[in-house]
Amino acid sequence: MKMKHTILFFSLTILGSSLAQDSVLFDRYFIDKTMRLDYFHTGTHDKEVYSYDEIFQEPVWAGSKVNIIDTLNLGKYLFKVYDIKTNELIYSRGFSSVFGEWQTVGEALKGVWRTFSESIRFPWPRRSVKITIGTRDRYNVFYDDWAFIIDPREYNIRKTDYYPDTRVIKLIHNGDSHTRVNLVILPDGYTKREMSKFRKDAERLLSTLFNISPFKERKKDFNVWAVEVPSEQSGIDDPRTGKYVDKNRVKWQDLMDRDTPIPTPWDKQEYEAHQNEYSMDRQKMIREDASQSQLESLSKTAGQWVHDHLRNQQYWGKVGVFQGASYASEGLYRPFPDCIMFTKTLSGFDPVCKRAIENVIDFYAK
């Protein structure tokens, strides 16, 4: 049976700024509406081009009016908004995209060209602006790849088409969207008949999420909605994996002890042998029509083995550079032996993940 998934998206409308910026600056350059620029992102592993599609006007701006310049330095891409008259940077946001992930897979590495539709959203400018989109290079420096000028008075700007039959459910509401992290849960792989299951799964996801630190302590900083947009088919495809370049610098170096080796040793071979064995046992049980309780028992036993194995490692409890992360056995490294992002269990977030989450919450919630 295919698993149903929910895709959890942090609202892209809450952005960062320097401490000197405030709502006065926002009102000087923006109106409390949203501009959405749709464009096409085309390329291969090492080539990419942008092309304009459409501009939309949305009736409200749900993001921060204080944090408007990005200071987090996250994501592979960075878009900036400049006021044409003064050439002042008035808005920016780092982001990642499916195109950037696709560039790592075999198809792109072979030189196949693909096109993805992408969007950026920002407050509605009072006058003409220049938009730039830059890509982060191997030295973590952004270089602009595309520039586009927008006059908000253009006649061909469209108003967003809203669908009255789309149901939006308010799951958690703690205050003004301008001062909260806006979290939206969308169904992927749920049909119209499965919306009841989607709602239950969304509530279960939130119950789990806000029972884990640091989300547990910061729940008041969130607003959460579920949008019932059904899929035509039930279930989703498995993600394809690719090879990654080893980075020559450790982003979380300040959290490591000086005597922790890089890369940090762990019994990766035994772990992977066990995971392969578990996968084969599970496939065999499925072919033999094993019951759900039997499959759950196998999963529980395997999970306990992983739990014990990782905690028996020499550098358990230490922040390090452990090979194997993000679906890749080699070429990508994680900072901790175990984390909810690695084993997909309720083991909690490692120190690096926790700090990153805290930084984003602090950044969004002001």
Which CATH architecture of the largest domain is right? Sandwich
Helix fraction, binned, reads: 10-25%
Label the overall shape.
Answer: globular
**Helix run count:** 8
Reported by name, the CATH topology of the largest domain is Immunoglobulin-like
> What series of H and E elements makes up the topology?
EHEEEEHHEEEEEEHEHHEEHH
Q: Kindly report the spatial arrangement of strands forming the biggest sheet.
A: 1-11-12-10
Residue fraction in strands:
25-35%
The CATH homologous superfamily of the largest domain corresponds to Peptidase M64, N-terminal domain
Highest-level CATH class of the largest domain:
Mainly Beta
Classify the secondary structure makeup into a structural class.
Answer: alpha+beta
Characterise the protein shown here:
By secondary structure, the chain is an alpha+beta fold. The protein folds into 3 domains: 11-161, Sandwich (Immunoglobulin-like); 167-228, no CATH class; 253-361, no CATH class. Helix content is 24%, strand content 30%. It has helices at 23-29, 98-102, 106-109, 195-209, 268-287, 292-311, 340-343, 351-364, and strands at 5-10, 30-43, 48-58, 77-83, 89-95, 114-125, 129-136, 142-150, 158-159, 167-172, 181-188, 222-228, 322-325, 328-334. A 4-stranded mixed sheet has the order 1-11-12-10, covered by helices on one side. A 4-stranded mixed sheet has the order 6-2-3-9. α5 runs antiparallel to α6. The protein is globular. The chain starts with a strand and ends with a helix. Residues 1-21 and 239-245 have low confidence and may be disordered.
